[in-house]
Design brief:
It is a single chain. By secondary structure, the chain is mainly α. It has 2 domains: 68 residues, Winged helix-like DNA-binding domain superfamily/Winged helix DNA-binding domain (Arc Repressor Mutant, subunit A), CATH 1.10.10; 138 residues, Four Helix Bundle (Hemerythrin (Met), subunit A) (Up-down Bundle). It is 68% helix and 4% strand. It has 10 helices and 2 strands. The protein has a two-stranded antiparallel sheet with strand order 1-2. Helix 3 runs antiparallel to helix 8, helix 4 crosses helix 8 and helix 6 runs antiparallel to helix 9. The longest helix has 22 residues. About 3% of the residues have low confidence.
Length: 225
């Protein structure tokens, strides 16, 4: 995804009649309007979500979280865009391996019953995702809730920035299909293993399960690159 695509989406939002909480048009409509692909649009929306411009809700759509002119700072978005230009896919995955296992270990101690229920709901729903984009949305939400469940707001914010950069530099280089991943897709069982460790409040096992998951993802990315 180029900065031009991100700027095009931002310009459309700024010129639209949407108010705070307003729902953006369906992806196919926005793609046709802006002349971009669905993959480019999804990546731009993730960057905008990380910066607090939009909020995406699985199964409902994408909503304007705050009017661009009302935002006090665009530093998060600028940070993501800048880092995405200076970060390679392997570097992005190494950052995930450094941060996310520790977040999982912390979440085993701090996750609330509601967060555990939400994680279980997503882990189950990912197995019946209707498309790859739908799976990606649920996967992103799964990891975001887990980061939030760590109980550390600063690390959660860092995870959002890292995830925005990772999505741009990793997924824009992969030719992911439109169809949903099959039942043997490695991440499905790995998500379950992470969640089981969280439910059992086993921090060390949660750390290892997340580490295994990310190493599998890195291996798959290397094969497909």
């Amino acid at each position: 995804m180029s900065n031009k695509v991100l700027l095009r989406v931002r310009a459309w939002i700024a010129a639209s009649d949407l108010t705070e909480g307003g729902r953006l048009p369906p992806e196919r409509v926005l793609c046709a309007t802006l002349g971009i692909s669905r993959a480019e649009l999804r990546k731009a929306l993730l960057v905008l979500e990380s910066s607090g411009t939009v909020a995406r809700q699985v199964g409902r759509g994408t909503f304007l979280a705050k009017k661009p002119e009302q935002r006090k700072s665009r530093s998060a978005e600028g940070t993501i865009a800048d880092l995405a230009e200076r970060t390679g896919p392997h570097e992005a995955m190494m950052a995930r391996l450094a941060l996310e296992p520790e977040l999982a270990k912390m979440a085993a101690l701090h996750a609330s019953p509601r967060q555990l229920r939400d994680l279980r709901r997503l882990a189950t729903a990912m197995r019946t995702a209707v498309s790859w984009p739908a799976y990606e949305d649920m996967d992103s939400e799964f990891h975001d809730i887990l980061a939030e469940a760590s109980g550390n707001s600063l690390l959660h914010a860092l995870h959002k920035i890292m995830n925005g950069v990772r999505f741009v530099v990793v997924w824009r280089r992969l030719n992911t299909p439109e169809i949903a991943p099959g039942p043997d897709y490695h991440s499905l069982d790995e998500h379950d293993a992470i969640l089981t460790a969280l439910e059992e409040r086993n921090g060390n096992q949660a750390y290892k399960a997340m580490q295994t998951h990310l190493q599998s993802t890195l291996s798959t990315m290397t094969v497909n690159s």
